[in-house]
Design brief:
With 446 residues, this protein is α/β, with parallel strands linked by helices. It has 14 helices and 17 strands. Strands 10-11-12-13-14-15-16-17 form an 8-stranded parallel beta barrel, surrounded by 5 helices. A hairpin with a 2-residue loop joins strand 8 and strand 9.
């Protein structure tokens, strides 16, 4: 759609609002207020405009459109006043048609249970990679990278008490946000952490002391979300722990209580004990579709959302591993990180490397069709699954970056042919629910 501003000083200014990331008529795009082109000596005569017409509907536009995708993040931080000044310069130069989109409205979502709710970015920055095994993390470089992700709109970070310095890095990061960004920016930042306690008696004081450590490390009065993990279901202490966590929530020490790696049976027991769980973080990818077989249906009935990890399988779901043979030395990238090794075992359980190559080829066809990466398609496919609120992408802070691929997820629309071809390729593998069990059972098998 298009709207013409009724301003006598700008009679030819046209604004486009589109659900597509780009339009076929756009020939140029600009970083407003960052790298603006000065066109004061260029005059666009009236005969340099074109008319779009269909029946009684018509609109005249400048044939060179100012594309505003770059304001969505990933090209540098946009100052509002500088951006508007830049738009005025373009309009004064006769470049009076602006193209934008509303598709970034789906960037955030709400997880909730009763009066407990938290809005998060649907693509979550996973910080397991700070715990070691992915390369040495420099503290200052890591925090700079976190700010860059947040400036791009990727404002939700996931960590755990056992992820090395992750909570400490978040504490440094959130303080820089407080100092260097406006208050409204701070309002969108979310820090989700996990508590993975030893199997000791879950007393109120033990739970409280443990959570206070995370609050201190993250430098927050209240944790946005506390995701609870429990190793052994034969020990019913998980219910005691969750009840104490609920008490801390009522005191304002925690905003929302959630789970990680719980199965459907235990989730039902927890909800029957009137513990207000808003989400369950589980492993979920095109290879591992277990959450859609039991968990998702129950979540849809109860309102609990899924936050997924392992969605790009540590990077295995990428062009990097397409057309490779790991059985031949040096014929494939090394599986040299904990995540690559973990998810390679998942591929083995699913059907093996040869079958996985067929899946990668299918994903590459879809990715090429849309002009995106395999990883972008892999995440979007899972985000479109029932009950999924957000998907994790691990960040190697200061070592590697995938902001553009992550941002592209929000404008990608998979059509029916895409979905059917991906589903067909995925279903060629083994049923992992039968091989491994329900969500989280991979951590509890003898």
């Amino acid at each position: 759609m298009a709207a013409v501003l009724n301003n006598p000083l700008l009679p030819n200014l046209t604004l486009f609002k589109s659900t597509r990331a780009k339009t076929t008529t756009r020939t140029e795009s600009y970083r407003l207020g960052v790298n603006s082109v000065r066109c004061s000596n260029v005059g666009i005569a009236e005969n340099r405009r074109v008319v779009l017409k269909n029946g009684n509907d018509s609109l005249d536009i400048c044939p060179v459109l100012n594309g505003m995708w770059q304001t969505s993040g990933g090209w540098g931080r946009i100052d509002r006043d500088d951006a508007v000044e830049a738009m005025l310069r373009y309009a004064d130069a006769g470049l009076s048609t602006f193209d934008m989109a509303d598709h970034y409205d789906n960037l955030r979502t709400l997880v909730m249970n009763g009066k407990d709710s938290l809005d998060i970015c649907r693509v979550v920055n996973g910080m397991w990679q700070t715990s070691g095994g992915w390369g040495r993390i420099d503290r200052d470089s890591a925090v700079d990278a976190m700010l860059k992700y947040a400036d791009a709109g990727l404002t939700t970070f996931d960590m755990a008490d056992i992820y090395g310095p992750a909570e400490d890095l978040y504490g440094i990061f959130i303080n820089r946000v407080r100092r260097e960004r406006p208050p409204e920016f701070l309002e969108n930042i979310r820090g989700l952490t996990k508590w993975v306690p030893p199997p000791v008696k879950m007393t109120s004081s033990f739970v409280r002391d443990s959570i206070n450590i995370s609050r201190k490390r993250m430098d927050v009065d209240s944790l946005d979300m506390l995701q609870f993990h429990w190793w052994d279901y034969s020990n019913p202490g998980y219910l005691d722990a969750l009840k104490h966590l609920t008490d801390l929530k009522e005191e304002g020490k925690i905003k929302t209580v959630a789970l990680t790696n719980f199965d459907t049976e235990r989730l039902q027991i927890i909800l029957e004990n009137e513990i207000p769980i808003v989400s369950n973080q589980v492993q979920h990818s095109i290879v591992d579709m277990r959450p859609q077989q039991k968990m998702a249906e129950f979540c849809q009935l109860t309102g609990v959302k899924l936050i997924t990890y392992g969605t790009i399988m540590g990077g295995l779901l990428s062009e990097k591993f397409l057309d490779t043979n790991i059985s031949i030395p040096f014929a494939a990238p090394p599986l040299n990180t904990p995540s690559l090794q973990k998810y390679k075992r998942m591929i083995d359980a699913w059907g093996g490397w040869s079958l996985f190559q067929g899946l990668l080829r299918t994903l590459k066809q879809v990715a090429s069709k849309h002009g995106v990466s395999i990883a972008t398609v892999a995440v979007k496919y899972i985000l479109d699954q029932p009950a999924v609120a957000g998907s994790m992408i691990g960040v190697r802070l200061g070592l590697a970056e995938h902001i553009q691929d992550s941002i592209a997820i929000f404008s990608l629309v998979l059509d029916e042919d895409d979905v059917n071809s991906i589903k067909e390729a995925s279903e060629k593998g083994n049923d992992l629910l039968k091989v491994i069990g329900d969500c989280g059972d991979e951590y509890r098998r003898a």
